[in-house]
Design brief:
This protein has 18 helices and 12 strands. By secondary structure, it is an alpha/beta fold. The termini are far apart.
Length: 412
């Protein structure tokens, strides 16, 4: 915390609501899991009656924060940044209330006050208040200076821009608190220092530890890539499954960080997890709460249903929207509709075409052994010919070999 005594006074029982902000640079048209802690923090403050601001770095996003980066960012065009901000807006409305009359959330863009400002004005109004000594002392800057790639003056100046954001929001919107991950500490303190030097006022900072996996790698990164909040970049099913599969050692911590469950409920889940970890009740609750928060009730129900199906559950009563989640997660192949009811539509032939069996002989053995399911129903007839009666939604057949080896066949 920066200026802890003042922050405790601002947040004391009976004190007036505080205006606070968290910023993000729009490097993509979707936020990612790493952004979620800040948004959850803003939501907690909003629920407590405070005034949250989300700052989109339309200006700072054109520069790039050197923190946590081993090399210079690729610079985005102004048009790309504006498109990214537009893409993120719908995600923000899912997490924060922009419509309430009492303390609505606000989205601001620092390009609105940065772009009209000339470089000479910026150097006079902001640059004169910072020493090179202090800027070089920052861990993120020093590590880059010592690396082979070095650091450009562009990225070196980033903390001054973020400091000016805090000053602007303090003056124009009465914003007294900035939040951010631990890697933002230097930038946040630069802002509180600038406010003190120019206005003689005390502003506050609040940071949280960066979430890491037990192996020390970044939380929210997988072998297949980043976990995004956009369902176009990370399917709802995959988002749900990410939390189902988090490490046992982290699940209770994540329930505390990300969910709005009462502590007594989390304590009960912790005790249950300690006694019967194989039931994964804490994981299921974490996945359910987080997917609801980010994607809403309907999409979460679809992801849960898709999970049941991909673990061998019945397809009875499934909707097409729920099946769409399944389609996105299994290998797909297309066959001619004319094969249905014909020798070419024999289950043995389709298993080979779908890549589940390498030969007719192996396919026959798989069926006889009870290892083949059609639409999650076990089939033991080696002479079965698939027909229109096997189609889901008039065009799909879901095949499964063993417990988890799936293939989807689309008939057109």
């Amino acid at each position: 915390m920066a200026n802890r005594d003042e922050l405790e006074r601002l947040l004391a029982p009976g004190a007036k609501p505080v205006t606070l902000y968290v910023g993000f640079d729009p490097t993509s048209d979707s936020l990612q899991l790493g952004n979620l802690i800040g948004l959850v923090m803003l939501r907690r403050f909003q629920q407590a009656g405070h005034h949250p601001i989300v700052l989109a770095g339309g200006a700072t996003g054109m520069i790039g924060d050197p923190g946590g980066k081993s090399a210079e960012r690729n610079l985005l065009s102004r048009e790309a940044i504006e498109a990214n901000i537009a893409g993120v807006q719908s995600q923000l409305t899912q997490l924060l209330d922009f419509e309430t009359k009492t303390n609505p959330a606000r989205l601001v863009n620092n390009a609105d006050w940065m772009q009209p400002m000339g470089v000479l004005d910026f150097l006079r109004e902001v640059g004169k208040h910072f020493t090179i000594n202090a800027m070089v002392a920052k861990d993120s800057v020093r590590s880059r200076m010592e690396s082979d790639s070095g650091i450009s003056y562009t990225e070196f100046s980033y903390s001054l821009l973020q400091a000016y954001d805090f000053l602007h929001l303090y003056e124009k919107l009465g914003c007294q608190l900035q939040g951010g991950g631990a890697d933002q500490w230097g930038n946040i303190v630069a802002g509180t220092d600038l406010i003190r030097r120019k206005l003689g006022a005390t502003a506050c900072g609040l940071t949280w530890p960066l979430l890491l996996k037990p192996d020390g790698t970044k939380f929210g990164k997988t072998e297949s890539g980043t976990i995004w909040l956009s369902r176009e970049k990370t399917s709802v099913y995959r988002f749900y499954q990410f939390f189902i599969q988090v490490e046992d050692a982290q699940v209770i911590e994540l329930l505390k960080v990300f969910t709005f469950l009462p502590m007594e409920d989390i304590d009960a889940l912790a005790a249950q997890h300690q006694a019967t970890p194989e039931r994964r009740d804490a994981h299921k609750k974490l996945a359910l709460e987080l997917t609801r928060l980010v994607h809403g009730e309907t999409a979460t129900a679809d992801a849960v249903r898709a999970s049941e199906i991909l673990f061998g559950g019945s397809l009875e009563g499934i909707t097409e929207a729920q099946f769409d989640e399944v389609i996105a997660e299994v290998p797909n192949t297309t066959q001619a509709r004319s094969l249905l009811g014909q020798p070419g539509g024999a289950l043995i032939e389709i298993l080979i075409a779908a890549g589940l069996s390498p030969s007719k002989g192996q396919a026959r053995k798989d069926i006889e052994a009870g290892g083949i399911n059609v639409n999650n129903v076990r089939m033991t007839d080696t002479k079965l010919v698939l027909g229109a009666e096997h189609l889901l939604f008039g065009k799909f057949i879901l095949l499964r070999k063993g417990k988890r080896n799936y293939a989807l066949v689309r008939f057109e």
